């Protein structure tokens, strides 16, 4: 199973019973170097992808070079999906990753839910009672928003600060989120992080109201770990929510054949 996001690729190999036999993932903007793939050919490949079609085509070409005879199938969001999922959202505009994340929640719980994917974009989806998707919200993620802020700064200041936030391995070693910055770089970073946290809290609260009483918050995506620590409420972190939903889709749906679009 392949989860091709806007900036990363994650994959899993599962047995017929759903046991994870192998997994991997890395940042992959497309092109070269080619991403890591399983060493052994699977029986079938399922892909959920978002972003430019060229990246999906490049990955497909690499997959077919490695595993020429293995059939590849794709997630196609539909108004009614597996596990009782029903969309009020225009299914033609719902990303395969969001569709699979909703399925991943339904695989574990039939209760109302707020489903947050913190990646290149922040998506907040409303899952009501009975598997009804009531819509959602989209906002810029941590790094695209930071890049937009940096582009507005004078050149000298931009060079001084640098265009990148600390990487995931460094984030927990950085100053506590919320502490005042003692320089322009730190003040900008803390301001942007706090603004993003506040946006997620407000969007999540609105989604919770729409979802109904007892809605649980679910969080996935590359920025989920630090965001979960910063939110002022309980939240369930599931790093592989999209792949879990993709597995459910593969098990229960006969749809999804064709080329990526």
From TrEMBL:
<keyword id="KW-0418">Kinase</keyword>
<feature type="binding site">
    <location>
        <position position="117"/>
    </location>
    <ligand>
        <name>K(+)</name>
    </ligand>
</feature>
<comment type="pathway">
    <text>Cofactor biosynthesis; coenzyme A biosynthesis; CoA from (R)-pantothenate: step 1/5.</text>
</comment>
<feature type="binding site">
    <location>
        <position position="184"/>
    </location>
    <ligand>
        <name>substrate</name>
    </ligand>
</feature>
<protein>
    <recommendedName>
        <fullName>Type III pantothenate kinase</fullName>
        <ecNumber>2.7.1.33</ecNumber>
    </recommendedName>
</protein>
<dbReference type="GO" id="GO:0015937">
    <property type="term" value="P:coenzyme A biosynthetic process"/>
</dbReference>
<dbReference type="GO" id="GO:0005737">
    <property type="term" value="C:cytoplasm"/>
</dbReference>
<feature type="binding site">
    <location>
        <position position="89"/>
    </location>
    <ligand>
        <name>substrate</name>
    </ligand>
</feature>
<dbReference type="GO" id="GO:0046872">
    <property type="term" value="F:metal ion binding"/>
</dbReference>
<keyword id="KW-0547">Nucleotide-binding</keyword>
<feature type="binding site">
    <location>
        <begin position="3"/>
        <end position="10"/>
    </location>
    <ligand>
        <name>ATP</name>
    </ligand>
</feature>
<dbReference type="InterPro" id="IPR004619">
    <property type="entry name" value="Type_III_PanK"/>
</dbReference>
<feature type="binding site">
    <location>
        <position position="120"/>
    </location>
    <ligand>
        <name>ATP</name>
    </ligand>
</feature>
<feature type="binding site">
    <location>
        <begin position="95"/>
        <end position="98"/>
    </location>
    <ligand>
        <name>substrate</name>
    </ligand>
</feature>
<comment type="similarity">
    <text>Belongs to the type III pantothenate kinase family.</text>
</comment>
<keyword id="KW-0173">Coenzyme A biosynthesis</keyword>
<keyword id="KW-0630">Potassium</keyword>
<comment type="subunit">
    <text>Homodimer.</text>
</comment>
<keyword id="KW-0808">Transferase</keyword>
<keyword id="KW-0479">Metal-binding</keyword>
<dbReference type="GO" id="GO:0005524">
    <property type="term" value="F:ATP binding"/>
</dbReference>
<dbReference type="Pfam" id="PF03309">
    <property type="entry name" value="Pan_kinase"/>
</dbReference>
<keyword id="KW-0067">ATP-binding</keyword>
<comment type="function">
    <text>Catalyzes the phosphorylation of pantothenate (Pan), the first step in CoA biosynthesis.</text>
</comment>
<keyword id="KW-0963">Cytoplasm</keyword>
<dbReference type="InterPro" id="IPR043129">
    <property type="entry name" value="ATPase_NBD"/>
</dbReference>
<feature type="active site" description="Proton acceptor">
    <location>
        <position position="97"/>
    </location>
</feature>
<dbReference type="GO" id="GO:0004594">
    <property type="term" value="F:pantothenate kinase activity"/>
</dbReference>
